[in-house]
Amino acid sequence: MKSDIKIAQSANLLPINEIASNLGINDDELELYGKYKAKITDDYMLRNADKPDGKLVLVTAISPTPAGEGKTTTTVGLGQAMRKIGKNAVIALREPSLGPVFGIKGGAAGGGYSQVLPMEDINLHFTGDFHAITAANNLLCAVIDNHIQQGNELNIDQRRILFNRVTDTNDRALRNIIIGLGTKADGIPREDHFTITVASEVMAILCLSDSISDLKKRLGEIFIAYTIDGKPVFARDLNVQGAMAALLRDALKPNLVQTIENTPALIHGGPFANIAHGCNSVRATKTALKLADYAITEAGFGADLGAEKFFDIKCRMAGLRPSAVVLVATIRALKYHGGVPKSNLNKENLKAIKRGVCNLEAHVDNIAKFGLPVVVALNRFETDTEAEIELTGSICAEMGVEMAVSDMFVRGGEGGIELAEKVVKACDAPNDFRYLYADELSIEEKIETIATEIYGASGVKYDDIAGKAIKAIKAIDPIYSAYPVCMAKTQYSLSDNPALIGRPGDYVLNVRDIRLSAGAHFIVVLTGTIMTMPGLPKSPAAYKIDIDDNGNISGLF
Fold first, then answer.
1. Distance set, CA 389 to CA 62, 289, 518 (Å)
2. Which of 81, 109, 223, 407 could form a disulfide with 416 if both were Cys (CB 3.0 to 4.6 A apart)?
3. 105 pLDDT band (50/70/90 cuts)?
4. Is pLDDT at 481 greater than 70 in this prediction?
5. Which CA distances in Å does 390 have to 78, 350, 372, 377, 422?
6. In this predicted model, what pLDDT tens digit does every residue of 185-200 receive, in sequence order?
7. Taking residues 122-146, what's their average pLDDT?
8. CA 232 from centroid of its chain's CA atoms
9. What CA–CA distance (Å, rounded) separates 450 from 281?
10. Total-model pTM
11. What are the respective helix, strand and coil percentages of the chain, to the nearest 5?
């Protein structure tokens, strides 16, 4: 089979204005970025404000493994399959970060014959949204340091500046740095830190904002520092929120592209699910709900991370009500969670599947706590045997959940028809969607609810820094205690220890720090050893990427 990029480059794309026209989007509601990309303006949503919403389907997965599960491929293929069975569907995805593209994981445009296109653009600069977020974030940082340099009227304590600079590449050398070295004119020396752009609070704000006015208000609410006498300082105190919003004006508009089979796709925003809230933008999802009868979106990593945050943060803030959940699993992942090393995953091993299915069961149980029906999508690989597939299907039947074998990497939408039909059936069934915890619970109660109910922990241990941070947040304003919590945790385990595969139990979740994202309207909880600036591997994917004299890119996948 050809590589992903070769498949993508041989696809027959339609002009994006034709895709838009088929959706009922007028030419003056579209801002073109070349022939195959466009942004949808506010005019479309204003014109269709009274149009009923379609049904919202979330695609999530079991705990990811080094072998890869294909969640984005499944999301894209499901959208294509929906159209093949006569359903009007639109896909809503996140934008890929350059960190994984040049690092170890790769891009996020799907794979095989279930990709969003143009994949090279989407995986690289796309429409410049991430660059705008980076610029807005770093403008605030520059203004903070300039304010201190120019007399420090707000009396900011340079030892207690909480807002960090960002870049959208994995660069461990920037995690902890000293800035302001040189002469007096070069600034005030102080310790600073870099975060990857996708973990920036500005990214979260852009993804959760409903409008320019909401965006500007949230930017002004960013908690940036303490004064020397311990009072909080916000971005609005520096009057920089307007300039930041100006940089983000175009980035706030959802991006319209298409799949290999010309199914419309909105790709907008890109927070990681292990260190941020892991969902595409509210504006893109709401637009998809107006454009189609079925809006198919995804949340990053396993259901313990992306799905929980999708429900408890995004749906809560945006008033979204999903209809069904697709849980992606693979035979290889089940064997991995059953203790089989990556090198042996291609060999039939029914006993390992029986041991590893506990991870699948945990995620099915967790989704049930939100009151939604779930369909397991078994993403098929060529090494899967019929005996392994039959065993997994019988286990799902015992759990009382539907399973569909998905072959969308190789066959595109045709390989997902069974899944599409079962998803439609699940969407038509009644559900009792609910959040995991109530707003009025304390910060600690929310953390402990997620830890025990979703992660399977027996309890939570707070480091001294975390305990002090909770007290400090409560002291600033009681309103922050009502915010949802955004857990930063390893994606490889239900616990905070990536080595604990399967369904770990009888462990204590370690919380090392708590950070207030006042503009995003949530509280970030850092657990275990999770970092907000990843590093590059020994052999980065960047080594394989190249471009020829005609401008053709190779090596992306």
1. 16, 34, 46
2. 81
3. low
4. yes
5. 22, 10, 25, 14, 18
6. 999 999 999 999 999 9
7. 97
8. 29
9. 23
10. 0.96
11. 40, 20, 40
